[in-house]
Amino acid sequence: MIVQLSERVQALAKQKREMEKFRNQMQDLNMTLAEIQTLVTEATNLRGRYNLIYYRLPEAHISDVEARVQEQVSQVRNSKQDFSTNRRQTVALRIITGNIRGLNASLEASWKLAAEALLTPYYELYNLIRQLPDFRAKEVELGSY
Amino acid sequence: VDLNKRFDRLGADIVGGHITTLSNWLREKETQIIEFVQQPTAIKGTITLSEITLVENVCFATLNGEITTNAPTNKELYIDLIRASRSGIKWSDQGDQVQGTRSLGWVNLVKRIPAEDVKSCRDQWLQQINLPQGSSTDVRFINAAKAFDEIEKVRINQLGFIQETLPTDTDYAIWDRYCQIYGDLQKYYQRGVNEEQDELRSLLRNLGEMLGNEEPERVFQEISSLFSTLRDHSIGYSFKERHDLTASQLKDIQESLSKVVAENKDPNKAFGLSAAQKPIQKLRIYLQYLGDMIKQVSEIEQALSRELRTISVIAFNEQLIHQTEKRYEDVERILLETVDIPKEGEADQ
Questions:
Q1: What is the ipTM score, two decimals?
Q2: Closest Cα to residue B344, out of A62, A118, A107, A47?
Q3: Alpha-carbon span B298 to A24, nearest angstrom
Q4: Which chain A residues have a beta carbon less than 8 Å from that of B335?
Q5: Is the N or the C terminus of chain B less surrounded, counting Cβ atoms within 10 Å?
């Protein structure tokens, strides 16, 4: 009776320790998953932006972006490898997310510049023709389009 | 003729007749008269006062836990009785001493007998065998031979509960008192002894259930390992481990008491139970200790089981791991897709 009881309780104690380990691991996993989801969002944004404007960027800028993206890929791979032994990858992922967010910001700025460069001739032309009497006469009508 | 009157004399022929009658009567009653002069309180019968008090003393010593061996020889029993008669243990203390150690039947029997009767009975027996040496008034000797003979007799008679009717209405208060005690012992002693043996058997059965089929050494090792595990796992418990209680002592107790419960011959059954007073006390301590331990550990088991039911995370963790690994693949794929976009003109090549 005593031996069996003792064996059961010791098994439960060990199981409890395992469970606590799993519970802590679950917290780590949840944090890692939340962080990587943010990273997925940022990466998706990056892909969309880059796809939209890469052909309008200077070659040097494209090379720089692609090198930086490759660097993030290798960091993601490192983090994935570390994840098999350490389920909490929040710091590594946060850094990658920050880097990609930086790339996004950079692309946004570049896109702004590219768009402005694209539209500048049209604005200049517009500013020019709006001085013409015919245009002025029909400005209200044209403004409604 | 009135012999009280002066000068009244019986005639020689009449006196001669009376003397003849008196002589005949004296001759006829000579043995009884000598017995009476030697032991004025003796009652003619199959049992003597000395035997009655001996039997009672054997019972008292047994109930008092003063028998020292399971199956004493006559000499050992005699020494135990002498020691018990002179011991400082008061009978009245026994009620408290046996309470919680002995069975209810045994305790009630002890309580039934007044302490002063025990003392008086012990003194009486000693007096019966402590005789004056010759005509001396201050030199006495213990008539051990007589005591041995009587012990032999009462042992043959299963503690001397002779079935013949005891003398009643003896005109001697001392006889009446001892006969009454004897009668009580006849009625209750055997029952008390049997109850005690039954309870001891039950205690040993409880111990057996607690130990399972394991040796005490294995059980004590397991207890030690259990509490070490609980400490290592920071699981709190209020149970106090007692290092003065050992497996070897429990094993000795278990073995010696098993012999006591296996004894079914009447005199030795009671003697064994008497001699086992300390082991029985110890056994109860072990049972209490192990019982408390089982109670506490069972509570811990229940608490752990409850706790574990609330932490069923293993399967969920596997799911999370899978999801996270999938996200890693997604990120990698998205980033690679980002830089693998066919450049203008590359698609045409």
A1: 0.81
A2: A62
A3: 27
A4: 43, 46-47, 69, 72-73, 76, 100
A5: C
User: Which of B307, B297, B311, B305 lies closest to B230 in space, CA to CA?
Assistant: B297
Q: Which residues of B touch A20 (CB under 8 A)?
A: 311
Please report the residues numbered 91 through 120 in chain A whose beta carbons come closer than 8 angstroms to any beta carbon of chain B.
96, 100
Length of chain B: 349
What are φ and ψ of residue A144, in 5° steps? -75, -10
Residue corresponding to tokens 């939340």: A34
Residues of A in contact with B321 (CB under 8 A): 29, 87
- pLDDT per position as a tens digit, A21-69: 888 888 999 999 999 999 999 999 999 989 888 888 888 888 999 999 9
Structure tokens at A12: 């439960």
Residue B141 pairs in a beta bridge with: B131
Does A83 reach chain B within 8 Å, measured CB to CB?
Answer: yes
pLDDT at B165: 62
Binding-face residues of B in 268-297 toward A, CB within 8 A: 290, 293-294, 297
Evaluate if residue A140 carries a pLDDT over 90: no
Q: Which of A68, A59, A74 is nearest to A106 (CA)?
A: A68
Q: Do B219 and A2 touch (CB under 8 A)?
A: yes
